[in-house]
Amino acid sequence: MTDLTTSQPVLELSAEFRGETITPQDPDFDRARAVYNGGIDRRPAVIVRPTGAADVMDAVNYARTAQLPLSVRCGGHSIAGTSICEGGVLIDLSSLKGVHVDPDRGTALAQAGVLWGEYDRETQLYGRATPGGRVTTTGLGGFTLGGGYGWLSAKYGLTCDNLVAADIVTADGRLVHVSEDQNPDLLWGLRGAGANFGVVTSYELRVHEIPPLLLAGMLVLPNQDAGGFARAYRDHVEQAPDELGTGMVTVLAPPEEFVPPELVGKPVVALVVAYVGDPAEAVEAVAPLRELAAGGVDLLQPMPYTALQAMIDGFAPKGWLNYHRGMHLSRLSDDVIDDYLEVGKTIHSPMTQGVMFRNGGAISRVPEDATAAGHRAAPYMAHPIAAWNTPDQTDYEMDWVRRFSAAVEPDRTGGVYLNFEPGTTTADVVSGFGEDKYARLVALKDQWDPTNLFRSNHNIAPTGWEPVTIPQQATR
Ligand SMILES: Cc1cc2nc3c(=O)[nH]c(=O)nc-3n(C[C@H](O)[C@H](O)[C@H](O)COP(=O)(O)OP(=O)(O)OC[C@H]3O[C@@H](n4cnc5c(N)ncnc54)[C@H](O)[C@@H]3O)c2cc1C
């Protein structure tokens, strides 16, 4: 039997627990507790690495009985740091890596610790894909349970729209199957607010056939008439087919071979483009964008889906300090374009990016009340990403995100995408879902987690409980 902590009353995990436990005395503890956002510095009392659902049940029962804080981690990409608690039990799902694709059924079954790069590698073998993370190291867990926007989303919806079924360990330590037929209300909640209801141990996700090669890549504008370019981009994508996934980015041009020396280190406007369909049709669909970027850098080429999915990995180093936002926009007006581009010119850090995602398509055809994930009608999402690696840059970078947010304010719907938010008050959580859905989520929480055991998240408090708010993360 394992004595899990030194600082808490000695409780014992089930004798049958097969996984690993790591305590602060362990030489590997600091590596094991590290998360993506280097600004998050928390020390759980114990890190538990289950080998399967039975171990997860033991860990949940242990945390509940010991009355210890509990957190659950898949890829550890939560910018708000919700996947790691101080002084409690961290259920680290990273040893649960199985992915099984069933092409006849059109789904893939993935265990709870799988990252997007790992998942895509397996589904690609069958010529299939699920809309998923645009960086390979992001976890399936927090991503899917919080909504999930990927390059395929305009064509195939949010990741949570593709969630067919799940197994989940609930607060009372039971393993529950969730699907359209079994516990459909809980499936509704898992599709966007899933971190609140238990520990999901496996996901069944729809997989879609995709061509072996997709026309995708990046266009970097020549350093002129960014306003004209951004307006023309907007006008093009608003009538483009769902196959075209895009995002506009303001960033410092990286010191890469393909970047003309005079642009390196300068603020530029770039487009990331992915056409999910026949590359021959794609040539026509992207031609106007290519024309707009003529004289700049054109890196569009046919590539496997896994290459597209890894394309921006270099802009996502683990351990840098991070501060992000995710704000839904009802339109992209000329004035907001101009202000967004102005703020882009003030980027200081090589990893800071001002992203403007085009959404719409299949995302917006799912009825708003069909899933907990919301704000489906919003055609754009403004996503400032500040990432820096020395604490003396902190004030500048956080202020840059605030200036970016002020620039897009006139076009905001008021809704936020919680998966991109750095901290949340109850009002923020409500604006992540909308008031009606929030009320429905509270009722679901009353049913499945009435004592708020799962509260290290963008918290939906059960009736009678104070919601747990997350301060906007101060950084080390
Ligand atoms: C570099 C980077 C790129 C990103 N790209 C995108 C993008 O393209 N599109 C997009 O929509 N979002 C994107 N995000 C945001 C991303 O969706 C969230 O950060 C998401 O929470 C990451 O999931 P994770 O499993 O890695 O996170 P974690 O930090 O491990 O978990 C996040 C939350 O989910 C909970 N959770 C995780 N697994 C489970 C489980 N099995 N059961 C219950 N709760 C669980 C955790 O407790 C925590 O509250 C990105 C983030 C980063 C840092």
Which helices and strands appear, and what pairs or packs with what?
Elements: E1 20-22, H1 29-33, E2 46-49, H2 53-66, E3 70-73, E4 89-92, E5 99-102, E6 107-111, H3 116-124, E7 128-129, H4 140-145, H5 153-156, E8 163-169, E9 175-179, H6 184-193, E10 199-206, E11 208-209, E12 214-220, H7 226-237, E13 244-252, E14 267-275, H8 279-292, E15 297-298, E16 301-303, H9 305-310, E17 321-324, E18 327-329, H10 334-344, E19 353-358, H11 362-365, E20 380-388, H12 394-408, E21 412-416, H13 426-433, H14 435-448
Parallel strand pairs: 2-4, 3-4
Antiparallel strand pairs: 1-2, 5-6, 6-10, 7-11, 8-9, 8-10, 12-14, 12-15, 12-16, 13-14, 13-19, 17-20, 18-20, 18-21, 19-20
Helix pairs in contact: 7-10, 10-12, 13-14
The structure holds flavin-adenine dinucleotide.
Flavin-adenine dinucleotide (FAD) binds at residues 36, 71-79, 82-83, 93, 112, 133-135, 138-139, 141-143, 145-150, 194-195, 199-200, 316, 419-420, 456-457.
